[in-house]
Amino acid sequence: MINTAAMTTKKTKFITKLKNVPELTADEQSILADVTDKFEFRANDYYLSLIDWTDLNDPIRKLIIPNPCELDDWGSLDPSGEKNYTIMPGLEHKYQSTALLLVSNVCGGICRYCFRKRVFIHKQDEMLSNLEAAIDYLRHHPEISNVLLTGGDPLMLSTNKLQNIIEPLLHIDHIKIIRLGTKIPAFNPYRIIEDHKLIELMSSVGSAGKQLYTIVHFNHANELTDPACQALRLIHKTGSVLANQSPIIRGINDNPQNLADLFNKLSFFGVPPYYVFQCRPVLGNKGYVVPIEEAYQTFEQAKAQCSGLAKRARYAMSHETGKIEIVGLTQKHVYFKYHRAALDADNGKFMVFNRNPDAYWLDDYDQPIEQFPLENFQNSEAVL
């Protein structure tokens, strides 16, 4: 059974060695040693308490406990080409109105399918080290209206450190939205429940005339425990808008019922699904990635079990060239559209490819058989 009331104390114990997970046998720890030598392991006692250790297919176990499949030589450390949009360490500017600050190189736990493993491998090279220079860049780019704080996880910072980052953003007129990208409500909701100063800081964003968005990261309904939902309610009370994003992950939410359960339960707590991502082809991720066309069908079948409030997500991949939405599938063709493009000329572009059931990423398809810039639709000349 899942223990939804496992944590009753304020202190959360972080665990970075498999030998400190008593439910794993010595043989299991030995088998997984090569994995943890390559990719960091991190969890905490609260999150591990959610695992049903009698079930080898428990979704939380699969999310957090290393797997030998991670040693498969497949994928790259930066499949979305984030380096191409990096202005300085820890500051990315890919989309005109949005800047991204990597403010932390630590998470409450490390998801085994993590798309930013490089942050944990090259800790000092990736995170923001010169806040003053980053703020100056933001101040001199009036097209930026959104700033996303991510990492790692921004809520792994102390509230004082987080305040030092947020406060100067409140004094830049053209920045209207501050986003927190965090899995802390799933990994350690007590970080939110027990820190009244954090709640005050989140409330201060609205008081300063800005809008706070908290983009949470729940992958399976089993993560939505009573403490997690209490944390979500507290965030709501600060005036923050909540939304959830998750990739489709093999063995965790890659069947319609599990995905629908996640969507529905999130909606019950006022957290609309935002993006459902194609799991990125990151080094070590082969065992977690579902082919695009299979994942699309799972996504659509899950939405059919939800009310409109629970099925607002878009199924998209964070490609180097932009966020590309997967919008349709026929017996012969698969259809894509740029939801948000790095280049203005690509915004809204519609692309048609021959189906490839083994495609994990856009680059696995041959050249599009048809593609239409947005202006073609505006001229009503393009007909499929």
Description:
The protein is of the alpha/beta class and 384 residues long. The protein has 3 domains: 14-71, no CATH class; 82-310, Alpha-Beta Barrel (TIM Barrel); 321-384, no CATH class. The protein is built from 14 helices and 15 strands. It has helices spanning 26-38, 45-48, 59-64, 117-121, 123-126, 131-139, 159-169, 184-187, 190-193, 196-207, 226-237, 256-268, 292-303, 374-378; strands spanning 14-15, 43-44, 86-88, 91-95, 98-102, 146-150, 177-182, 211-216, 241-248, 273-278, 314-319, 322-329, 333-341, 350-354, 370-372. The chain has a 13-stranded mixed beta sheet. A two-stranded antiparallel sheet has the order 1-2. It is globular. Residues 1-9 and 380-384 have low confidence and may be disordered.
How many domains make up the 3D coordinates? Answer: 3
- Decide which structural class fits the backbone: alpha/beta
State Rg: 21 Å
CATH class of the largest domain: Alpha Beta
Q: Estimate the strand proportion.
A: 15-25%
How does CATH name the architecture of the largest domain? Alpha-Beta Barrel
Number of helices: 14
Strand order of the largest sheet: 3-4-5-6-7-8-9-10-11-12-13-14-15
Main sheet specs: 13 strands, mixed
- List low-confidence stretches: 1-9, 380-384
Q: What is the rounded distance between the termini?
A: 51 Å
Secondary structure: number of strands: 15
- Inertia-based shape: globular
H and E string: EHEHHEEEHHHEHEHHHEHEHEHEEEEEH
Within CATH, the superfamily of the largest domain carries the name Aldolase class I
